[in-house]
Design a protein that fits this description.
Helices cover about 40% and strands about 25% of the residues. With about 220 residues, the protein is α/β, with parallel strands linked by helices. Helix 4 links the parallel strand 4 (about 75-85) and strand 5 (about 100-105). Helix 6 packs across helix 7 (about 175-180). It starts with a strand and ends with a strand.
């Protein structure tokens, strides 16, 4: 049974999500704000977090930042809940280390489909270690290091890097990246890829990933 943590300050939304998720067989824990949510994350074995952006005391972006600073939670999927018009919040959520976002008002059937797709993608990651140049990618442990120095990456950034590095020199088209890393059941745009590529370059350096204009990206092994 997969365990989902809902962090949202609106009681009606928490109850709606909890009801529909439990009906689908999920174990559910709820929290009314970010402070309580972080505490409950530490107390429970959580697979996925539904995280509201706009909350008092500690907003969702800061909650995500705090979670991603702790390697023990690297495999926890974070899906933001944002208002449909909040483009900035969606980008900020991905920047903070979120894996996906769902727009409000939330449609239960869409929610369940997206959650199942995220969980499947998490389970289907093939465990192995890749070594390209001075970069080591350990898919078993979700760890990346450069010259033996560890670099902590959120899950989607890790999967994107592992995909590109799996075939150095080959160009991965955008649609292929979206299908492999996010899955066909999840609706994301090119902007999502660009945000993750930018964050990767900030962390591992710009020399590893080359943009192929109008096509996609490739990993440089020269």
């Amino acid at each position: 049974m997969k365990h989902i943590l809902i962090i949202d300050d609106e009681e009606e939304i928490r109850e709606l999500l909890e009801y529909n998720l439990k009906k689908e067989g999920f174990e559910v824990t709820t929290a009314e704000n970010g402070v309580v949510g972080l505490k409950k994350l530490e107390e429970n074995d959580v697979d996925l977090i539904l995280l509201d952006v706009m909350m008092p005391e500690l907003d969702g972006i800061e909650v995500c930042h705090q979670i991603r600073k702790q390697p023990v939670f690297n495999n926890v999927i974070i899906c933001f809940l944002t208002a449909r018009s909040e483009d900035y919040s969606q980008i900020a959520g991905l920047d903070a280390g979120g894996d996906d976002y769902i727009s409000k008002p939330i449609k239960p059937r869409v929610l369940i489909s997206r959650i199942n797709a995220l969980l499947r993608r998490n389970e289907n990651t093939s465990p192995k270690t890749q070594e390209v140049k001075d970069l080591v990618i350990d898919r078993d442990k979700y760890l990346v290091s450069i010259k033996n120095e560890p670099i902590h990456l959120p899950k989607k950034e890790f999967e994107l890097l592992a995909l590109l590095a799996s075939r150095p020199g080959s160009v991965f088209e955008r649609y292929n990246i979206l299908e492999t890393v996010w899955g066909s059941d999840i609706i994301v745009g090119d902007r999502t890829i660009d945000v993750h590529i930018r964050k990767l370059r900030e962390k591992i350096g710009s020399k590893y990933i080359k943009t192929v204009k109008g096509v996609g990206y490739k990993f440089i092994n020269e």
